[in-house]
Design goal:
Blueprint: H1 24-44, H2 58-70, H3 90-100, H4 124-140, H5 146-165, H6 185-200, H7 207-219, E1 228-230, E2 233-236, H8 238-250, H9 257-272, H10 281-295, H11 297-313, H12 323-326, H13 335-347
Antiparallel strand pairs: 1-2
Helix pairs in contact: 1-13, 2-3, 2-4, 2-13, 4-5, 4-6, 6-8, 8-9, 8-10, 9-11, 10-11, 10-13
Length: about 350
C-alpha cells in the first residue's frame, strides 16, 4: 500500500468570547520567525547534510531539522530550499545523511535498521524515533524516484522493526534499541509517533505493541494530571506531560479522562510559570503546541496567549533560538540547531502540513 501525498489541512475552531487570539501583527511575527529560522538552519547545514555536533545528538537534531522544513511544506526537489545558495537541496541532503546511518547489519551491539552515528552518545532511541518519523514523511510525499522509494521503504521497515523489538515489558521504551528494564516517557513519545505515521503510510505495525504503549502512558499519570518520567521515577514536568498527551493522541486517544486531566495540568502550567526557566523548554513547547492544538478551544487559546508570544521573544536577530541561553545549561543543552528546529516545529503546528499535527 502506497502512502498518499501529504495534504494541507485547514482547521477551524470556535474562539471563546472571553479569550482573545493573537493579533494580526503577532501572526505576521510568527511567519517571519519561521522563515528566518529555516534560513538559519539552511545556512548552518554541514557539508554532510547534518545539523548538530557529531558527538551531541547529530542523528536526532538532523531528523528534527528535516521535520522543521517538512512542517512548512518544503520537500526534496521542491520549494526555495531545493537549491539554497551554497548548500543545494537542504531536505534531500539531510535525508541522505539519515539514510546513510541506517545500518544493514548488527553493529556495536545494535540491531539492523537502527539509525545511529558512531560517537553520538546522545541521540540513541530518541534520535531513532525522530529519524524514522522524518523518513516516513519524506516517503509519504510521493516525490522520490523508484530507487529512492525502494531505499526509503526498506529502511523504514527495518526502523519500525527496531522500535517494536525494543519495547520493554512495561510497554514503554528506553534509551537503547533493545528490550531492557529501562523505560521512560520522552523516548516513548518519539517512537509512538513514528509507529502512528508508519501505520498511516501503509506499513505493518503490531497493534499489540501500540496497546501496551498506551497502557504504559496511562499508568504513568499522577493524580494531579501530570505524567511521570517513568514508572520507576515519580518526577513529573510540563514537558513530560505534553509529550505523554501527544503520544496518547498518537494511539488514537483524544477524549478520555486522563487526557482531560493532563490538559488541565498543562494549561495551569502555561498560565502560572515561565517555562523557559525549566529544563527542556523547547521540547516542552513543541509537544505542548501539539497537545493544545488537538484539544482546540480554550486550550489552544492558552498556547496562543502564553506560549506563542514567549517563544517569539526568544528568537535572536540572526534567526536562531538557543537552549543554552534559556534552559539549565549545566544539563541537557544541545544548542542552536536543536532549539531552532523545535521552535520552528512548535510555530508550525496549525499549518497542517504534517499528519502528526492534524486534528
Amino acid at each position: 500500500m502506497r502512502a498518499a501525498p501529504l495534504l494541507l489541512l485547514v482547521a477551524s475552531f470556535a474562539r471563546p468570547q472571553d479569550i482573545t487570539g493573537p493579533s494580526r501583527e503577532l501572526e505576521g511575527d510568527r511567519a517571519r520567525a519561521v522563515r528566518t529560522g529555516l534560513d538559519y538552519l539552511a545556512r548552518e547545514q554541514s557539508k554532510d547534510g547534518s545539523w548538530g555536533a557529531p558527538d551531541r545528538g547529530v542523528i536526532g537534531i538532523t531528523a528534527l531539522g528535516v521535520l522543521a522544513f517538512l512542517a512548512q511544506g518544503h520537500q526534496e526537489g521542491f520549494g526555495p530550499y531545493a537549491d539554497f545558495p551554497g548548500r543545494g537541496d537542504i531536505v534531500r541532503r539531510a535525508v541522505d545523511f539519515l539514510l546513510k546511518h541506517s545500518t544493514q547489519t548488527a553493529r556495536q551491539g545494535n540491531p539492523p535498521g537502527y539509525i545511529f552515528s558512531e560517537g553520538d552518545a546522545d541521540s540513541r532511541m530518541h534520535g531513532h524515533g525522530y529519524a524514522t518519523q522524518a523518513l516516513i514523511l519524506v516517503y509519504g510525499t510521493g516525490r522520490a524516484d523508484a530507487a529512492r522509494e525502494r531505499e526509503l521503504k526498506e529502511k523504514i521497515k527495518r526502523a519500525v522493526q527496531v522500535i517494536e523489538d525494543s519495547q520493554t515489558i512495561t510497554g514503554g521504551w528506553g534509551y537503547e534499541p533493545r528490550s531492557s528494564t529501562m523505560h521512560e516517557g520522552s523516548v516513548t513519545v518519539t517512537v509512538v509517533q513514528a509507529l502512528r505515521l508508519a501505520a498511516d503510510a501503509g506499513f505493518v505495525v503490531d497493534r499489540e505493541v501500540q496497546e501496551r504503549g498506551l497502557k504504559y502512558l496511562r499508568d504513568s499519570q499522577k493524580p494531579d494530571g501530570s505524567f511521570k518520567y517513568s514508572h520507576m521515577a515519580d518526577t513529573s514536568t510540563p514537558a513530560l506531560t505534553a509529550a505523554a498527551l501527544t503520544a496518547m493522541h498518537g494511539f488514537g486517544e483524544y477524549y478520555s479522562r486522563p487526557i482531560t486531566k493532563g490538559l488541565e495540568y498543562l494549561d495551569r502550567s502555561y498560565r502560572g510559570r515561565d517555562l523557559f526557566h525549566l529544563q527542556w523548554p523547547f521540547y516542552c513547547h513543541y509537544y505542548s503546541a501539539q497537545a493544545f492544538y488537538r484539544a482546540g478551544g480554550p486550550h489552544w487559546e492558552t498556547w496562543k496567549r502564553y506560549g506563542l508570544p514567549r517563544l517569539l521573544d526568544e528568537q535572536r536577530r540572526e534567526g536562531f533560538w538557543d537552549d543554552r541561553l534559556t534552559a539549565d545549561a549545566r544539563r541537557g543543552s544541545h544548542g542552536r540547531h536543536h532549539a531552532t528546529a523545535f521552535a520552528v516545529l512548535a510555530l508550525s503546528v496549525d499549518e497542517g502540513y504534517l499528519p502528526i499535527f492534524q486534528r
